[in-house]
Structures are given as C-alpha cells and as structure tokens.
Amino acid sequence: MPVSTPTTRGKLFAHQASLPKLPVPTLQETCATYLRSVRPLVDDAAFAKTTAAVQEFLKPGGRGEELQKRLIDRDNSVSTSWLIDWWNSYSYMGYRDPVVVWVNYFFTFVDYKKYRNNPALRAAEMITGAFEFRRQIVTEELAPDMARGGPLCSHQYRFLFNSTRIPKIPEDITRNSDPNTNNHVIVMRHNKFFVLDIVVKGRQLSTAEIEKQLLKIYELAGTSKDIAIGSLTTQDRDSWAKIRDELIKSPINKASLDKIETAAFVVCLDDTKPVTYEQRSKSCWVGDGKNRFFDKSFQFIVFDNGVAGFNGEHSMMDATPLNRMCDFVLEGLANGTINHGVPPSNFERLTPPEKLSFKLSAHLANEIVIAEKKFNELVARHELTVVVFDGYGKNAIKKLGCSPDAYAQMAIQLAYYKTYGRCCATYESAQTKKYAYGRTETGRSVSIESVAWVKAMQDTDLSVKEKGELGRKAIASQSSYMAKAVEGKGVDRHLLGLRLLIKEGEEKPSIFTDPSYALSCHWNLSTSQISSEYYNGYGWGEVVADGYGCAYMVNNDVLQFNLVSQKLKNEEMRFHLLEALREMKVVFQATVPPPKAKL
C-alpha cells in the first residue's frame, strides 16, 4: 500500500517537508561494510568466494552498477522514500504467516498497590491517559521525536490510533478511521466485544465514568465465554482473509467488525492472574489467543489481579511511537499529571456499553475451532524465558565508560558463544527516522572485534586488562556500525533494494547466490532494545526456526532480556547471560578510561 504525503499544520508534522530523503549509499561503501560484516562469520575459503563475488558485483559497467542505476532512478521518481513501500509490503503486509508470535510484540507494566485486584480502575486510567496522547496527535500539538537535537519523522504516528490491519490476498492493507468521529474503544471480556464510547454528546467521560462503564462490562460479560471471534486474527493471513470475506457477508457481522476496526484501540480484560515475569510476558505476548483482536494497532491488557501490559501490531509502526505513548501514559499516571476529569452530577445515567453480535454459520464456527487448534500448536512449540539481572544497570555501565546498548549487545554475544561455542548472525534494530518515512536498518552486531573478545573471555591465559581492552574494541565496533545504520548506511536495506530490482528472467548476481549472503542475514539472534522504568517485560518471537527473539531493556539499575525460541537452549542462555554480565563488569572495571581533563 503506497504511502501518501498529506498536508501538515501542527507541531508534530511541522518538520516533515524539510526532512531529508533516505539516502542511497554508494556501491563501494555498502560492499566494503558488507565484507567486513561477513568476515567473522565464515572461514577463509568461504570468505575468498564472497570477496570474489563482491568484486564481480563492483566491476565497472557490471550488474552492480546497473542495479544501482535502477535504484537511483527509483529514488528520483518518488517523493517519499525509495524503500518505504517495498519495506511495508516485503516485511509486513505481504507476509502471510500469523502475526501472533511472528510479528506482534508486547510490553508488561510495573505494578502499583492501588491497582492490586482493581483492574477496572487501572484500565480506566490507562484509557484516559491514552486519549490524552491521542488528542495531542489529532491536534498535532505533540512534539516530534528528537535525536541529537534534530526532529525525527512523525509519519508512523498516523497509524497509532483508530488503525487496523485488514487481511487481504495477496497482501494486507491498513484501515485508518477518522478519530474525530470514532471516539470509542472496544473492550473484550470472556471473548465478548463491548463498545465503550469515551466521548458522549461531545464530552469526554471522566476516568470515574469510564471505570463505572468497565464495571458494567464485567457484569454484562458474566462468567460464560462466547465463541472466540478474536482467535481468527491468529490465523495465517490468507486463511483469515478468506474467512473475513465470508464473515462480512452477514450485515450483522460486517457492522460488528466495523465497530472493532474503527475503534481507537482495544482493551482486553482477562480473567487470569499472572504473577511471574514469564506468566506476565506470555500472557501479553499471546495469551490464550481468544480474548484478543491482534489486528488492532494496539491492545491494552488488564488482568483480574490488576497486572497490566500491552500488545502491538508491527506492520505500519515500529515500537518507538507506541513506546512513547505507553511511557507518556504510565509516567503521567505515576506522577499525577493526567487530567482525570470530574463526572457530572447525573453521570449515573450513562447508557450501558453495547455488546456486539455475530452470526456464525456452522462453517465459520468450525473455522474458529481450527484457528484455536493451530494457535495452540504454534504456541506450544515455543518457550519464553525472562532474564532479570539486578546487579547493576545503565547508570553503572556509563560509569564504566561504555555505551549501555553496546554493552548489552556484547553480553548477548558472550552468552551465545558460551552456549554454542560459536558466533552467529545478529540483527539489531536501528531506526532511520532522521529521514522522511524512515523505519529501520539492520545493525550487524557481530564483528571481527566482538568475536576476538568473546574468545578472549574464555582464555585463561589472558589478563583481565587484556580482556577489557578487547571488549572496548568490540563495543566501539558495534557503536560504529550502529552509527552508520541510523544514517541509512548499513548494508541490508541497500542490498535488498538492489535485489528487488532484478527483473524477471535476469540472472541473480553471485553476491546474492553466494552462501555467505544467506548466512549473514540468517538472524539466529534477532535483538532490539526498548527501555522504560515503567516496564518489567518486553519481547517478541524469533525470526528463524533455529534462532532467538532477544528483546532487552537497559534500565537504570536493572538489565532484562526476553528470550523466545522454538525450545532451543533458553535456560543455558539465561545462565550464561547472568554469568556474562558478572564477568564483564570485572574486565571493564579494570580498563575504565581516565576522566577527561577539564578545560
């Protein structure tokens, strides 16, 4: 679905027209960076073959130059970004596997005593906070994200509220609805859908009124559970697209789906009481697959014991806008800066929330049974492990003179090496939103320096100082690559663009058929950092069958990792992550650089 370039008027989008376009790197710089990233992953013979393929690609007048010319022509022909439409289609909308496990991600929120066993209050306060953030987006008074003093692209904020992914063949589409006329949220309880109007007769309900309406939903939902329409959103996209087409043949179903799809967001009131990190994380990541609508841009999830979290759909937004929204809500509630409003004297007269109805044929009812079975089988193949290290966090890492993100990346590298005796291709998400319509580039975390360091950490003949010095080189290499990536000068998006411009019937250049290419982007470790003092969980699924989804948070005094795999070596990885972080502090303390002289 091509992106458009709408007009802007407010602070949020004030810089959009002046943001630079995503650059097209030169062939020479991409190929040099690519070779350096491949070197630590392959042996000498394989690297010689890769080098020859790259040299062939770079030949004057060769295939590389022709594909590069095509890419530059494409860039010159669009006003947005040469990548954005490809990326949204290739990575998300054209992706046909279920969004659950493979695409959606989650946060879990820290607890507060006032919410204990009071889920209606917690849900009501989060709704009020989210509607304030929504108001600031609609009015465009929200300031844009900033980095190094410069504004970042705000395009993704257009898909935060009143947005739903719609299954279609051959690829999905996004449905955005007018927030000025759609001021309701969908509340789910016992697989039932209720419409909760937040604006009534032109007035936004107070938090107390919202809470009262939520308590009414608990009452109306009762103890029985409806057939789980929401489980259909756990299906593969082609199956769900066909089922949805059949579902909306009924005017009743079409009207109910319309209410869900146009809602600002979904609130799931679950009847479980998760306690441990793993229970909370798994419940927010997948739950039982029934009391959810995974196609919504986001869902707040509140459990009967007052525990809460979030599930986000990834197709049109990366995690950063939703993280900002959640942080805004949670920080505002913690600090008392959210305006909860005052209910009018007659607020007892609110109309009870409407329960949506569905008319299901025997075939559609059976499709729900099939969806539930497939979901259960998919989830059963997976293992989720939360690793919490409270020995130190970001504050201490900075005192060691290290980048907190690079430090956490090296902990992951060391843990993987301890577990498997080798290093693997590692993906780290790097945002490219300094450019118009920027999304992400790959940070390739494994380097010649990181491999030398993880091996050195296992060498009893090396001194602590020698290990620390090698560790600092590894961190510097990771930071250097990430700096290139955020400038749009990693290798993966550029090579993808060149590959997508190979015409039907044309032979693929050997750089793409060389086994090192597939190996170097087979992400055994798919990693990304989102940090917040208001979260105690964050994660998603793995991207290859023999790999891990490794989300991590580097908070002030705690490091936390979420490991998801198809039952690989999660427990060994947990042990080695904790061990790595203890060992790293020793070697980096031994090599803390002297303080800079004050001028």
Tell me what you see in this structure:
About 40% of the residues lie in helices and about 15% in strands. By secondary structure, it is α+β, with helices and mostly antiparallel strands. An eight-stranded mixed β-sheet has the order 13-7-6-10-11-12-1-18, with helices on both faces. Strands 14-20-19-17-15-16 form a six-stranded mixed β-sheet, sandwiched between helices. A hairpin with a 4-residue loop joins strand 11 (about 300-305) and strand 12 (about 310). The N and C termini lie far apart (about 55 Å).
Report the biggest beta sheet as strand number plus sense, adding barrel if it closes. Answer: 8 strands, mixed
Q: How much helix is in the residues?
A: 40-55%
Mean pLDDT: 96
Approximately what portion of the residues adopt beta-strand conformation?
Answer: 15-25%
Counting DSSP H or I runs of 4 or more residues, the number of helices is 20
* Shape by Cα distribution: globular
Could you tell me how far the N terminus lies from the C terminus, measured between alpha carbons in angstroms? 55 Å
Low-confidence runs: 1-6
Summing up helix and strand content along with how strands pair, one would put the structural category as: alpha+beta
Give, in spatial order, the strands making up the sheet with the most strands: 13-7-6-10-11-12-1-18
Q: Any idea what the radius of gyration is? A: 25 Å
Number of strands: 20
